[in-house]
Amino acid sequence: MLLRENIAWGGLKQWNLKDNERDSCRCENQAMKSECSSHSVTSSSEVRENDGGNDHRGPYYCDRIPHTFLSINNSPAPTNLHSTLTNILAKNSDSYKPIPVIHSLSLSTSLSWPLATSSMDEWLTAADASNRNVPFLWVGPAAAGHLKPPGQILSQGNNALWHYTVEMGKEAKSRGIDALGMYNFTLQASSWDGSGYGIRVGLVQAMMVINWLSRLEST
Fold it and tell me: Hey, CA dihedral for 6, 12, 14, 19, is it positive or negative?
């Protein structure tokens, strides 16, 4: 949304939206409605192939820097995900320009500490094997809203989330990984289902990550 300068539908494949979906999936609803989030953009290549050409792109469109989104919910991760990372790291192998990795795990892992630390070690090992400059940022989970389903309160309530945030932050830093916690930031934010937050929260989270990325070139 920030790169495309399109708050209304910037996070979606709007070329796939029907007329009624364009109305119902605007702005906050991009993330709040499941029928809208299923249209989420996951790579710039999707935009490049469907946006009608350069004349319709914002000045911040990201096309010249290889990047990708890898969906990770277990450790070890599937070999095809490792292959994708290896291929990106192999490009311009003589360059010392940082190739950042933003690492997080979904709540589907039930806040497993062993799985999280195993995933950190797994991807650090993969990055180290490339001999490239690969800084990592660990992003912790958001706080639980009051609409969190009762069956998830014990395993994914705020007590569990807080301890996970603190301990995984320590684990990340002990491995030389920067850590960005989202718990305090979202503790008093409004959530429509107790786990997900709207576009306003998402934009601030994105700016936090961009601020981290902006300081890499000088380090």
Answer: negative
Query: Phi then psi for 24, rounded to 5 degrees?
Result: -85, -15
- Report the C-alpha gap between 79 and 60 in whole angstroms: 32
Residue of 184, 185, 180 whose CA lies nearest to 209: 180
DSSP letter (8 states) at residue 16? G
Query: Tokens for 158?
Result: 């705020």
Type of residue at 63: D
CB-CB neighbours of 47 under 10 Å? 20
In this structure, what are the phi and psi dihedrals at residue 96, rounded to the nearest 5 degrees? Answer: -100, 5
Cα gap 205→180, rounded to integer Å = 10
Q: How far apart are CA 119 and CA 72, in angstroms?
A: 9
pLDDT at 22: 86
Q: What is the pTM of this model?
A: 0.79
